[in-house]
Amino acid sequence: MNVAIIGATGYGGAELIRLLQQHPDVTIQSCHSSSQHGSETVDSYPHLQAVAGMELKPIVTEEIARDADLVFTATPSGVSSELVPELIKAGTRVIDLSGDFRLNDTEQYEAWYNKKAPNAAVLDNAVYGLTEWLDTDLTKAQLVANPGCYPTAALLGLAPLVKRQLIDPNTIIIDAKTGVSGAGRNATTVTHFTEMNDNLKIYKVHEHQHTPEIEQVLSDWSSHAGAVTFSTHLVPMTRGIMTTIYTDAPEGMTTEKLVALYKESYKDCYFVRIREQGTYPSTKEVYGSNFCDVSLAYDERTNRIMIVSVIDNLVKGAAGQAVQNMNRMFGLDEKTGLAFAPVYP
Amino acid sequence: MNVAIIGATGYGGAELIRLLQQHPDVTIQSCHSSSQHGSETVDSYPHLQAVAGMELKPIVTEEIARDADLVFTATPSGVSSELVPELIKAGTRVIDLSGDFRLNDTEQYEAWYNKKAPNAAVLDNAVYGLTEWLDTDLTKAQLVANPGCYPTAALLGLAPLVKRQLIDPNTIIIDAKTGVSGAGRNATTVTHFTEMNDNLKIYKVHEHQHTPEIEQVLSDWSSHAGAVTFSTHLVPMTRGIMTTIYTDAPEGMTTEKLVALYKESYKDCYFVRIREQGTYPSTKEVYGSNFCDVSLAYDERTNRIMIVSVIDNLVKGAAGQAVQNMNRMFGLDEKTGLAFAPVYP
Amino acid sequence: MNVAIIGATGYGGAELIRLLQQHPDVTIQSCHSSSQHGSETVDSYPHLQAVAGMELKPIVTEEIARDADLVFTATPSGVSSELVPELIKAGTRVIDLSGDFRLNDTEQYEAWYNKKAPNAAVLDNAVYGLTEWLDTDLTKAQLVANPGCYPTAALLGLAPLVKRQLIDPNTIIIDAKTGVSGAGRNATTVTHFTEMNDNLKIYKVHEHQHTPEIEQVLSDWSSHAGAVTFSTHLVPMTRGIMTTIYTDAPEGMTTEKLVALYKESYKDCYFVRIREQGTYPSTKEVYGSNFCDVSLAYDERTNRIMIVSVIDNLVKGAAGQAVQNMNRMFGLDEKTGLAFAPVYP
Amino acid sequence: MNVAIIGATGYGGAELIRLLQQHPDVTIQSCHSSSQHGSETVDSYPHLQAVAGMELKPIVTEEIARDADLVFTATPSGVSSELVPELIKAGTRVIDLSGDFRLNDTEQYEAWYNKKAPNAAVLDNAVYGLTEWLDTDLTKAQLVANPGCYPTAALLGLAPLVKRQLIDPNTIIIDAKTGVSGAGRNATTVTHFTEMNDNLKIYKVHEHQHTPEIEQVLSDWSSHAGAVTFSTHLVPMTRGIMTTIYTDAPEGMTTEKLVALYKESYKDCYFVRIREQGTYPSTKEVYGSNFCDVSLAYDERTNRIMIVSVIDNLVKGAAGQAVQNMNRMFGLDEKTGLAFAPVYP
């Protein structure tokens, strides 16, 4: 299978290269960059020397579509909305890692992203690719909207309770923490080493564009779902997301029941690991891997449930889930090329 | 004023030395350690060379009480409960940095600390020293129970709303994050550099001993207060606590009103800095200082309030607040020796 | 091929599990631990859940030797010296990751390691496994002494110059810096997060046990080699070693010549990447991978050469080079199971 | 004493504010910024709220010179060279923290800084302010060129040996490591958190502009001094410099002699702490303070001396030494306002 990567100089693109280079059924046919074309991948990423050195090409959608069985667009929001329809029109299949094709409601998109919404016809055909909870057979999909990093962690943590209508979705509070790679490769004062090291920041309070994405999926799963509280913090680490989720509990809840429910819900999902009662994951325990680890705890003092989920934001939160979706699109075992251990310590 | 420090080889003790060495009205008369006596402070802490090198003495309460106007007990819970009554009996005044004299209810103490409660008569005379919200004149106090690090951050963030009965305390959820120095100086696998670096952990889920301390104070402030949800995370940084607090809002709330209320509530409190609407503190902005910075945000989508408060856990969360309380006990301006800037970056 | 890992709860053992689990020709038949046997690998390392969960077995050398084609001993120095002869005697092949079989001179071993030297007959048959510069065909080797992390980085950086007798080995100064995982998993005050974070330490000054290992190899390569200056620093990072090496230059040296010499020397070595003139590697550019990146710079002002080499201490400096040696022992392409990209960022 | 700070939005300027705000004899009369004037100090540095909030004013040299007894120019190289002569001409005294007035040889300046050298007459009157080794009475000085961070650490480490002609200066190799704040506040990809965290980099190989500064001082101290090898590394920490210095030893050297020599040399220097034989400083042990800690070790195997010196690059390496020089200029005890402990941990 020949694939092309557009936006190869961002962290999402670099991680796609790392994962696809190891994939037994894939050849990276070409890498593309709007700003760096003409240079080499190793000029941007010296770690790729000897592994995936190749020229960065310009973005000519027709040529790309002609040569590739699948295109990954790891481009910023607002760029994908222009590029993807051209690629689709030219006849190739696409997995888009931006936020452009995730929100069905174009008004929501324009309100939260502050950008013009993509073409409605293309958007209508996009499948939201939260792999473990797909309601579509991806082998037919032409466009997969790869989920955001935060929504992946939060939704995998919430799905069993919300889908079975066991909780009131309006009591959900998601306190999310991310490593700094989630902010991308552009240097800013906020993410300057000296400002971020040994520091903890809260950012985009009540304004994070992943909020409507989470709410949209919860609404699909439960007719009672409305607005959720979702906050985001920058932790002085490179990779990793932890979401600590609080919600009111239904009557008769126990931690045992929660753990049993989640184990059952995810029993066929290799990449979701439910922790034993009383043990909790740390972000480093999924570092570099496609796993999402989830712990559950019921607190009888407050009658609330706490859900803790962790992912590597660049893998299960971006490139890894994209490869998992690719495997589904082409009828492969979803684990192909992804069943390796986290890098620990 | 002559002071003694018991427990000088822990982080709380070392930070007391740093602060008291700079204090214009204080002489550190002696430092004591149960395990290291006979050695020098600089053997444990080379950074004190030329600044506060002195012998570590054994803990002989009568001698200490005889020579010191005030004793800081920076000893572990379970040790203070034995030591402090002896010091009080010997006639000196004490500021205790452990959790032993904070909880009025000895059953709660024994349940959460898993240790024997201290002498009831001594406990009854202990004043809980959340300096900004004292209801007692400390000049008469013989024993001050210095608040825990988490309760300091959380309670300073909650006080204006709870004391004015503006919110339902049962809707309070406190998502707390701490730097690793909060775990003390004892080396463990959990806090081993290699295990903690580039990592984020959740710990003591529903079991943290600061929970009843927070609840006790909230109950003092509001008759409706009951159990709160309180969770604790270890962030890969040395110092700093951030509490992100969620609570349901009363009708008609706005962020403007919140900021105005907090500015009014803390207008005479040098060490509590209320941030302007739309700006948020990071932990490093109080690093090494006695400040607590607080931001407020109302979210009309969910009708919830978010309060963000940050402190340096070793200063306002321990040694700094202890010095602030000492200033109060001896009739000094509370800022004396503490009005310096955070170390940034 | 069936392999056993003894010492599976240390970082070297855990990294072997990660690498061997991905290796197409290997089955991890059993993992062994003297202290943790009876528990599961995931009890020590939750990140291995679903990937390499298995029971930790006791160390019964005869059983292990009977069932395994190869045994990795990732045991501490002083333990391997006892275990390995038993395994050899029982007829299996061994790659030892400790320092016990690296020094030919048992007096040197006892002086630097402060332990009793291993059996001389077994020692004599051990092959020092610096893979790129082996002078033996490993397909016949029964025991490979896997090199130390620092010697690997330093020797790969020095080999082309020393082996061709281009420099005076007595002018070599190696200033080495390591991530903290090199100190192992045992919690100590020195490697406590709070003490190590945002900190840089120098340690084992003139006493590091890798000094005679470096000197022994240099002596094998050049009859003029004697003592070298070798210093070691702890950097607040998890993985990675950088050696900055200084040496007097021969007449007529230029950076161009150095780069050309090294490219030629390593042209058949996939895992050694020579950087272009004027560019330098950082440790993260080999993170999680088996690469060693090397840069060269001649300074005409001082007539000295600077060599910079970086490795991941747990991969090329331990488990990765062990797998590379395993590949050689069993006649496989040395890249098998190791040709993946570093994890960046 | 009224002082003005020009360049108050850089790290050097911010650190000057922190130190001068605590100084008992100083009033910060005004802060100036070319780019941020009109805004407040707290807009750039929220940590200064309540401590040193004030308006940032434009740079009008005549007004500044009229109102201030002393001006600190914490401006970039190339800017100071223009500003300082105007300030001097307007009659004020100046401490310049840039590199512009450190090199006597304007050709060297232009070669290493790639900027136009400052006015020769002004340069001739500049005193190089390595406080512990001044050969001038600063009470008469109108312009002090505050030393660079690296030269301060290296020269304090080398002075006793070089000034007494005990070593051959041509054998000096300085392997220097710095925290990232040394690179300033401008966000770049090299110092982006995600690129620098858990990483170690070497930079400006054979091109660092502090090289000629070190060589110039060594030449002043020893007629045999020529070029030195000086290399610079970026360590993932905020503050701190360590220089590991290697040099050939004279006959009959021992570590005891070295330690005794250094203790004697620095016996009247509060801010230089010589460590006992066999103990070594880490950078965090001087964090936030004006101390320089130095250890010595002689290696008989190689007949080389190793000197290890650490400073906080923003304090003894910049703002702290500037305040120490200010104290000297105005006849105060050099410790005034600076005799506080490092922040540890």
Automatic annotation (TrEMBL), chains A, B, C, D:
Keywords: Amino-acid biosynthesis, Arginine biosynthesis, Cytoplasm, NADP, Oxidoreductase. InterPro entries: AGPR (IPR050085), AGPR_AS (IPR023013), AGPR_dimerisation_dom (IPR058924), AGPR_type-1 (IPR000706), NAD(P)-bd_dom_sf (IPR036291), Semialdehyde_DH_NAD-bd (IPR000534). Its main location: cytoplasm. The active site is at residue 149. SMART domains: Semialdhyde_dh. The keyword Cytoplasm applies. GO terms for molecular function: N-acetyl-gamma-glutamyl-phosphate reductase activity. The keyword Phosphoprotein does not apply. Belongs to the NAGSA dehydrogenase family. Type 1 subfamily. This is N-acetyl-gamma-glutamyl-phosphate reductase. It comes from Lentibacillus salinarum.
